[in-house]
User: Which sequence fits this backbone?
């Protein structure tokens, strides 16, 4: 058990040092967000050039604040950070989050030395440092946040990200699809607190059921491996390793001054530790949606309904290529289909092509319900947002009705079910808005949505791999 | 030269046989679309049960139409199609498009025999058949169309697709990003006219500069290879082969009764013929956007600007993994950067991380302009739609200004440039609509847009491969 870092997420008071009067500056945003976003503790502004910012007194120095300060957000230039650490130490501050950048990542020796000096002073005074060069903490439950528009509700997914930009993009992409977060930490150059510290904490965090991490490098691979292994025994961990190529590793150096390390070593470590390794933000979002919404399965036998003929073929190919099994319809299920429609009974297959069902009493929803009940299917995929269906006369209404029937099946089955919504990038505004509405209904029903079947298939495959690895690991215990 | 099929696209009159009074039926849509969508010739309805549909006389039979009919669209049940072919023959019809389905694809012997009987009668009378089991022709210039909402303007891209659904989805996905079409043919079971016939025609079609095809199978691989080779010598050909896996091949059989064939054979054929092979509709759309908008290049050295640090790293990795080269900044370019900003000159790299430029006179647009001018870069990629940038105070305005500067550079450079717009799959409506507006500006400027850098990188790599193959092939002539 290592919940000792829990105090990071429960400051009683926050001081924004380098609070700004300019709304475009992050030193303004940090102050505004903590004043107005549900943080219950006290929030102080420090800026010697201002008397008041956003209605609160602006102090000349951290030391001028009359009450205690637990947590400092630093938006001042790097050169004065060592002095800030000293003042924080005298003030009894527990945590300093350095939004301040331009330390080792500039590649200049004096900046790297400055970073080490900051670390030395923090260590000497027992202050923990998040960063430098990062966005810090988003913890909705306590009102800690680093960007406007993040969900106010909490959820089961924790995230670590060296990059603040990636954290923002992933929060946006995943929350749009209904994922909610327990704790997010953007931790930049990781001069003090690093990925292993946070993973170790999150392994035991009762608010966290799924962990994802965007990591550019580590200073202690052995410890990371041990912590990672402990984590994956408790909950799934999805890792995007950045800096996989030569050019990527160079970009990592000028971003967070991390040593990217060998991609083969990272792959081996994740495989042995049972972590899911992804290579893009899209894959990471897909993995989170899957782990957030779907009931665990170790199976790979998939039943697919709802596309036209062309999409049925593509779905079969893409699922098989991702390692799922698109099994033929079982004979007893086919018998039921024959009873329903003698003409279609031998023609309908898996995937079920919607367009051949016209004029019969057989619908894709009936086929999906049969697949949901049948023990041979482990996973269900249903298509709902094809341009073909949406664009036909009365199409929007029909597509929404079909979706509602899918969702009723999704609510009652114990099998994981993915809905393919199609791309919300379409020119036609009505279609675009329909897809947004469909997504809203899916999230409300607690169902996972994907823009394409190939992305769903890859995510579902990784999901099964994790649970199989977990089951094998458990069987050795 | 084989433009003999040109008459398919220039009928003087069309009869919709099986025209329907029910707006939900395709037999109604075909009539409505050709009456109201700019088709200049005469349009006739045939349905013995109606007197008038959509304001035009409904004839009891094709033979009752008092004038000549060039082109018949059949929406009647399969069993009466042989009789329709006989009547079409007596009427002097040149082309029958069989929207009618339930022929060989049902898997029943009598339906396959019926299909052969239709072919026999058509051959005997010199009628050419498109289909059966397909959507037919979309040719905006003549007002031929099979779905509401397709662009009314023409463009340089021709498409073949056995699946009507895939054709609709690809038209929607690609036209949303500015692609316009010369001729689209959905050709279903291909009982008479097949992929080789259409490719042979499109190779010489002066309205077509790019060809894409979604193919499920062929009956004559040798001829297809010869035709394909001839095509790729004239213009790029992008092929999505469906039915690549066992389950996919099964789905192909029940969709268009095609024999999917061996994927290895298809891969070898496309490689030898110099066609670009893709495996999803998304990849196909990306390839079309690339070929539609970008200036040809055989180079792979890419310059990237505009992401935050995390996205810069991801861009470097994903471009390198796709086979592009993310080269270091050349020394003479770096000297210019040092002149502009001594502090940043040695820190800025390729990809250029936007977030480190704050407070200096250096902007990503200046770096992009330098890359555009510098001979070491073959391809440019610029990020424009990150949630991070859009969500900050004043962000939308700033992002749009940056985009306009990118587009000015894109207009003046001879190098291919791709704009990464980010996913419009965002919850925030203002951000979503901003991305739609950004896309509009890009299309107007004739610039290619992609939702993610990994999709752009793969498309740009295939694009270079095609032009390199073409240059090599030409050097042997």
Assistant:
């Amino acid at each position: 058990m290592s919940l000792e870092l829990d105090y990071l997420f429960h400051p009683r008071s926050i001081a924004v040092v380098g609070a700004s009067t300019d709304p475009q500056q992050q030193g303004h945003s940090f102050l505004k967000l903590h004043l107005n976003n549900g943080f219950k503790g006290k929030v102080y502004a420090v800026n010697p050039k201002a008397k008041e910012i956003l209605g609160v007194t602006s102090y000349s120095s951290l030391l001028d604040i009359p009450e205690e300060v637990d947590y400092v957000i630093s938006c001042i230039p790097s050169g004065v950070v060592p002095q800030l650490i000293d003042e924080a130490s005298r003030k009894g501050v527990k945590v300093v989050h350095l939004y301040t950048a331009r330390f080792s990542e500039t590649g200049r020796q004096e900046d790297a030395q400055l970073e080490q000096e900051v670390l030395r002073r923090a260590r000497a005074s027992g202050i923990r440092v998040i960063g430098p060069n990062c966005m810090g903490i988003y913890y909705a439950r306590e009102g800690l946040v680093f960007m406007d528009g993040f969900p106010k509700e909490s959820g089961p997914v924790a995230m670590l990200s060296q990059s603040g930009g990636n954290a923002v993009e992933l929060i946006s992409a995943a929350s749009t699809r209904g994922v909610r977060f327990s704790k997010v930490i953007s931790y930049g150059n990781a001069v003090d607190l690093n990925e292993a510290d946070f993973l170790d904490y999150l392994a035991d965090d009762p608010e966290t059921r799924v962990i994802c991490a965007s990591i550019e490098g580590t200073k202690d691979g052995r410890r990371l491996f041990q912590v990672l292994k402990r984590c994956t025994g408790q909950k799934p961990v999805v890792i995007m390793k950045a800096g996989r190529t030569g050019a990527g590793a160079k970009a990592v150096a000028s971003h967070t001054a991390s040593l990217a390390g060998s991609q083969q070593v990272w792959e081996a470590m994740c495989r042995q530790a049972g972590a899911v390794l992804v290579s893009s933000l899209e894959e990471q979002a897909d993995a989170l949606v899957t782990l957030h919404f779907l009931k665990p399965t170790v199976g790979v036998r998939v039943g697919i309904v709802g596309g036209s003929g062309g999409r049925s073929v593509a779905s079969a190919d893409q699922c098989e290529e991702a390692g799922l099994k698109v099994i033929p319809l079982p004979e007893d299920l086919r018998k039921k289909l024959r009873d329903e429609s003698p003409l279609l009974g031998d023609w309908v297959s898996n995937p079920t092509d919607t367009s051949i069902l016209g004029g019969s009493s057989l619908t894709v929803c009936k086929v999906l319900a049969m697949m949901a009940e049948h023990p041979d299917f482990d996973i269900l995929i249903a298509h709902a947002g094809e341009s073909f269906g949406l664009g036909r006369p009365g199409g929007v209404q029909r597509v929404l009705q079909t979706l509602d029937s899918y969702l009723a099946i999704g609510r009652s089955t114990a099998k994981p079910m993915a809905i393919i919504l199609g791309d919300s990038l379409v020119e036609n505004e009505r279609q675009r808005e329909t897809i947004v509405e469909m997504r809203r209904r899916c999230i409300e029903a607690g169902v996972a949505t994907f823009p394409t079947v190939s992305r769903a298939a890859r995510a579902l495959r990784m999901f099964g791999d994790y649970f199989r690895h977990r089951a094998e690991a458990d069987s050795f215990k």
Q: What stands out?
A: The first strand of chain B starts at residue 13 and ends at 17. Chain B touches chain A through 93 residues (CB under 8 Å).
